[in-house]
Automatic annotation (TrEMBL):
Record key words, sorted: Membrane, Transmembrane, Transmembrane helix
PANTHER family, sorted: AMINO ACID TRANSPORTER, AMINO ACID TRANSPORTER TRANSMEMBRANE DOMAIN-CONTAINING PROTEIN
Protein name: N amino acid transport system protein
Family: Belongs to the amino acid/polyamine transporter 2 family.
Region described as Disordered: spans on this chain: 25-49
Subcellular location per the Swiss-Prot or TrEMBL entry: Membrane
InterPro entries: AA_transpt_TM
Cellular component terms (Gene Ontology): membrane
Gene: mtr_4
Length: 606
């Protein structure tokens, strides 16, 4: 077990320190306009990565320089990491490994400097800055595969989705969602590769929005991302609370069951880097698989959990008639539907579809994953492998559970097992996996809040500094307490997860990627051969601007892809509106029916 960390983050050859050709030539003259009006030119190291005055051309120049350096380093390494090694990584590869002395020195220098302070940043040379940036990139595509599949809502919410949509529509929608999610991941990768660099690293989804759309996009993305992540953590706290109460045979107060997991988050949340999440992510994936096997075996050899029928998919369809017992206390037989089941309300089916969206909700933190990769070009392999795993394994599991439990499927599905011994095994496995997933969501969520509020507004130091680490330690209990209060305060688990899927996940996976891609391609293709950024003077040369430039960029290359991406973006917005309607209707019905929140002792499953 001592080598578990190598499973998802391989050790490997150090990245060589290559200083940029113009690093020493960055002087103090700059023309910041097309006419060449003199202004003060500040070196890359002296400017924050989210400085709104940095032009797209400058971001793109340094991105191309960084990509060329990465390719040169890959060519110097003996061998590359193949597909099999990605799933079962070796001890050596193109990952964290031993850092070069220059990288260590750059990282050590930055660790003692408050980078949010402009005057302090001026004391760092460009070479020290780029070396420190390299040192922070340690993840491989193995890590990406496991981090993307470190999911708790996707596999265990999918049976609920099939139960509310039926065989045909469920399979069709899950397939379409999967294909589009993989395409969205590709679009995010294209934009990342064209705007990220050692000089100006992309750290969050919002950074991509800033660089191709403007400050408004960064604020919107950061806001929605912060909401989704804290709600995800809240959902996990509640689902783990339900699992613990079920394992304790409802003898432990339900509010205490939820509180236990919030307190556990105070400890697990102290992990700061994705590198250290590597072995946890690896373990979580196989724990999920084990939990799926246990619940499938239990579903095949035992009756559904009739006592939890009020939380089942059938309770939200056709007035709950399919799960309402007769006067003699006999529950209806398990039923299935080839098409949409009789729902009695459109909202029930739409909310079920939103559970399928959860399976592909990882796109929200794809930029964060790429930002910590040693070689972000390898992200596509890790992402496509993860999406394929999600599609094949989750699909099989969802159909299997629906086949045996029909309308009695509960979200999350491991709560729908009636045999106590197998129910407990599934609950324990799910709780472990969910805690790891919650720690990951909390990790990214706090980084978004810290960088967008504390660093930008209050000039807080980086998380790599001693002060930053202390602030991080203090933010963890506050963040998890807020997540607990939000998650426990809403009585309908599926309704809340549907809201998260519609308002946040859908946007980050199906709406924002094509929007970013169109904006990026328009700006990239509008650049003429004589235009561009001059690193020696800081001058950005453009021959025109305005609508003429936008039209040229839109139609310069493969304009039909831009049109398709715009239609894709509009489709995502439409589906988000429908999903929000369905989730809100479910929540209204939950409150109207007298459903209680989680601040009570009685478990919703008892």
């Amino acid at each position: 077990m001592s080598n578990m960390a190598n499973f998802a983050l391989d050790g490997g050859d150090p990245r060589l320190s290559v200083a940029g050709e113009n690093d020493e030539k960055m002087m103090t003259d700059r023309t910041s306009s097309n006419e060449g009006a003199p202004a003060i030119f500040r070196r890359p190291a002296s400017r924050p990565h989210n400085d709104s005055s940095i032009t797209f051309e400058e971001y793109n120049y340094y991105a191309e320089k960084t990509r060329a350096e990465e390719e040169a380093h890959v060519g110097e390494i003996a061998g590359t990491q193949g597909w099999l090694e990605m799933i079962v990584p070796s001890k050596s590869g193109m990952g964290a490994g031993n850092l070069s002395s220059a990288e260590k020195q750059g990282a050590d220098t930055n660790a003692h400097v408050n980078l949010a302070n402009p005057e302090a940043r001026n004391t760092i040379s460009d070479e020290e800055w780029t070396n420190a940036s390299r040192a922070l990139r340690t993840a491989t595509k193995s890590a990406i595969f496991y981090l993307i599949t470190t999911d708790i809502f996707g596999p265990f919410g999918l049976p609920y989705a099939f139960a509310t949509m039926g065989w045909g529509p469920g399979v069709a929608l899950f397939t379409v969602f999967g294909g589009l999610a993989a395409y969205s991941g590709y679009l995010l990768w294209v934009v990342f590769m064209g705007t990220d660099s050692y000089e100006f690293p992309v750290k969050t989804y919002g950074d991509l929005g800033l660089r191709v759309c403007g400050s408004w996009a960064r604020f919107l993305f950061n806001f929605l991302q912060a909401i989704q992540l804290v709600l995800n953590v809240g959902l996990i706290i509640v689902s783990n609370g339900e699992a613990l109460s079920q394992a304790a045979k409802f003898k432990l107060c339900f509010a205490i069951c939820c509180l236990v997991w919030a307190l556990a988050g105070f400890i697990c949340g102290q992990v700061r880097t994705l590198q250290k999440f590597g072995w946890l992510a690896n373990a979580a994936v196989w724990i999920n698989v084990a939990c799926m096997i246990v619940t499938m075996a239990a579903a095949a050899h035992s009756l559904p959990n009739y006592l939890g029928s009020a939380e089942s998919a059938g309770a939200g369809l056709d007035g709950g008639l399919s799960v309402t017992p007769s006067a003699a206390g006999v529950f209806p037989a398990v039923t299935h539907s080839n098409g949409l089941p009789p729902s009695g309300n459109f909202a029930g089916s739409i909310n079920g579809a939103m559970q399928a969206v959860f399976s592909y909700g990882g796109a929200m933190i794809f930029p964060e994953f790429m930002s910590e990769m040693r070689y972000p070009r390898d992200f596509l392999k890790g992402m496509w492998a993860a999406q394929s795993f999600i599609y094949i394994v989750y699909m099989f599991y969802g159909l299997f559970m629906y086949g045996y439990q029909g309308q009695y499927v509960i979200n999350p599905s491991y709560l729908g097992i009636s045999t106590y011994s197998l129910q407990t095994v599934g609950n324990v496995l799910a709780m472990l996996s969910a805690l790891i997933a919650a720690a990951l969501y909390g990790n990214i969520g706090i980084k978004v809040l810290y960088n967008s509020i504390f660093v930008d507004i209050f000039r807080a130091p980086a998380l790599t500094t001693k002060t930053g680490k202390l602030i991080w330690a203090g933010m963890i209990p506050i963040y998890w307490s807020i997540a607990f209060a939000i998650g426990a305060g809403i009585p309908d688990f599926s309704g809340l997860s549907g809201i998260v899927a519609a308002v946040c996940i859908l946007q980050f996976t199906y709406t924002f990627p094509p929007l970013l891609a169109v904006a990026y391609m328009v700006k990239k293709n509008a650049m003429l051969p004589e235009e561009g950024f001059d690193p020696a003077t800081g001058n950005v040369r453009k021959v025109d601007s305005g609508i003429k430039r936008i039209i040229r960029g839109f139609f310069a290359k493969a304009w039909y892809l831009n049109v398709a991406n715009i239609l894709y973006c509009l489709g995502g917005l439409t589906l988000a509106a429908l999903g929000s309607y369905g989730a809100i209707e479910n929540l209204i019905n939950a409150f109207a029916s007298g459903a209680t929140n989680s601040f009570v002792c009685k478990s919703p499953l008892s």
